[in-house]
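Narrative of activities, Objective 1.

The group set out to show that a structural description can be obtained from nothing but a protein's sequence at a throughput compatible with the screening campaign. Below is one input-output pair from the validation batch, recorded exactly as produced.
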Amino acid sequence: MSNMNRFLGGSPGSVLAKLIFLSLLVGAFLYYLDITPFGLIEGLFNWIRSVLDISFETVQQVGLWILYGAVIVIPLWLLSRLFSRR
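Output recorded for this entry:
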């Protein structure tokens, strides 16, 4: 078996025929579902963007919680430090 056949997993003609047949089946299935290749790529990018947006919104929300808590905690801590020395 030649290196090319070993790499492809068979003779180039048979591998090409299998790939064309599988492409036809997958293409028909995607057409039936009304999914386009560009739609898949766009959906992937939108999904990545939404994951990053959720992460950034979460970081913002946690930062706000820290800020809100600090408005109460830091003055109380400062008062407790001032009064504990006396």
